[in-house]
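Anyone up for a design puzzle?
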């Protein structure tokens, strides 16, 4: 049997930084101290007007490919975990597949909100373990900022935008050791963006359009999140036959520092083994865990042989956890040729994409002529 091993990683955040004082300056009834003390967040990155989720996903994916020293065409499957896709259809993953030159790879989106990336890791692992795929690009990318009501102090201070990616590849040694995922749709209304789907239609059809702002019952999500993050982590720790003291790094979803600390305490983990960067990014939804993985690697917190537990929760309500044995070497620096090669490859992919569109157009014209004749 094959295992799924993390072989590459990458992240991207947009360039606009919003610090807590900006909310006070824009007249929101809040304070820097409230936001920092109740959430642990000090700043977040927000997308520009012309930056779609796929734009961020492609940049994170390119970094991951270069870390794994792989070409886009070696990827069999692209999974993008997102609840803020570019369009209702096609999938964001298909757009990413084309731009990365992952020629012919399967491509699909997964929506499990903030839990999406760990869900996607789980699905990708299944594909590799069953022998259906060899190399899978798993991306978590979200820009929840475009669904925020900037007058709602309960929600707008919490979220940031970004993308993170890993390459999972088939290997003879683990890898992903165990995983779990679950959901409880009775809590669907606790955290929701009601509009934009089939329940409330924006084009009329006799139904009232719903608002497309994110709404949340913060205290209820908070209570549920600490319980679920703990039980999901306990499940994967037990099914990997690990003891809590054998966990080298715990990487929880970065939503609120108080949730992270409460979960770590329930699990009995040494605070030094708990990774947090919510202070600098806010809650980046599906991107939060892969961004945290990249930062933990950058900070030298992950070594070959380490046992790492990832847990996440989100709208749905949904949750997922994974236990990983880290096996990929962490290179000191990349070859200087990698960015050059990648820029060449993405240009080739863009040209190929244009040629295919032209080919389809010509095919349609020829078909029409033949029909007329
Ligand atoms: N500034 C000042 N006061 C505020 C703010 C703010 N930004 N936000 C809320 N308050 C007020 C409330 O209105 C309330 O006032 P009241 O007592 O007069 O009614 C008071 O502060 C306390 O409000 P609570 O909601 O009880 O505050 P709490 O300590 O629970 O913190 C928070 C709120 C930060 C939202 C917390 O509940 C939380 O983090 N919940 C979980 C959120 C989360 O993790 N979401 C996951 C998203 S995952 C995904 O799928 C997208």
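Challenge accepted. My sequence:
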């Amino acid at each position: 049997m094959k295992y799924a091993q993390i072989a590459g990683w990458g992240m991207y955040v947009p360039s606009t930084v919003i610090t807590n004082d900006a909310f006070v300056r824009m007249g929101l009834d809040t304070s820097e101290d409230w936001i920092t003390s109740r959430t642990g967040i000090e700043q977040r990155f927000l997308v520009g007007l012309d930056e779609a989720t796929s734009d961020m996903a492609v940049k994170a994916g390119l970094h991951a490919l270069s870390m794994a020293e792989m070409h886009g065409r070696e990827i069999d499957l692209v999974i993008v975990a997102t609840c803020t896709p570019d369009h209702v259809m096609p999938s964001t993953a298909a757009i990413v597949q084309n731009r990365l030159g992952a020629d012919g790879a399967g491509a699909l989106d997964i929506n499990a909100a903030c839990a999406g990336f760990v869900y996607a890791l789980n699905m990708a692992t299944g594909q590799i373990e069953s022998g259906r795929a060899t190399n899978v690009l798993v991306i978590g990318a979200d820009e929840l900022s475009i669904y925020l009501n900037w007058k709602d102090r309960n929600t707008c201070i919490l979220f940031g935008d970004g993308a993170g990616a890993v390459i999972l590849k088939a290997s003879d040694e683990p890898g992903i050791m165990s995983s779990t995922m679950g959901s409880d749709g009775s809590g669907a209304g606790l955290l929701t963006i009601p509009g934009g789907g089939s329940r409330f239609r924006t084009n009329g059809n006799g139904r009232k359009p719903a608002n497309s702002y994110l709404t949340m019952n913060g205290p209820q999500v908070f209570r549920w999140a600490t319980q679920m993050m703990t039980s999901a982590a306990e499940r994967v720790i037990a099914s990997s036959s690990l003891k809590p003291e054998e966990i080298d790094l715990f990487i929880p979803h970065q939503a609120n520092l108080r949730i992270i600390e409460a979960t770590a305490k329930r699990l009995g983990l040494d605070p030094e083994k708990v990774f947090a960067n919510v202070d600098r990014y806010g809650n980046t939804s599906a991107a939060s865990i892969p961004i945290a993985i990249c930062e933990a690697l950058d900070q030298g917190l992950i070594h070959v042989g380490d046992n790492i537990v990832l847990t996440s929760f989100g709208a749905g309500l949904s949750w997922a956890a994974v236990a990983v044995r880290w096996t990929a070497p962490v290179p000191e620096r990349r070859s200087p040729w990698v960015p050059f090669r990648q820029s060449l490859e993405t240009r080739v992919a863009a040209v190929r994409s244009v040629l295919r569109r032209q080919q389809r157009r010509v095919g349609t014209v020829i078909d029409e002529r033949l029909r007329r004749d």
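A detail worth pointing out: The chain has a mean pLDDT of 93.
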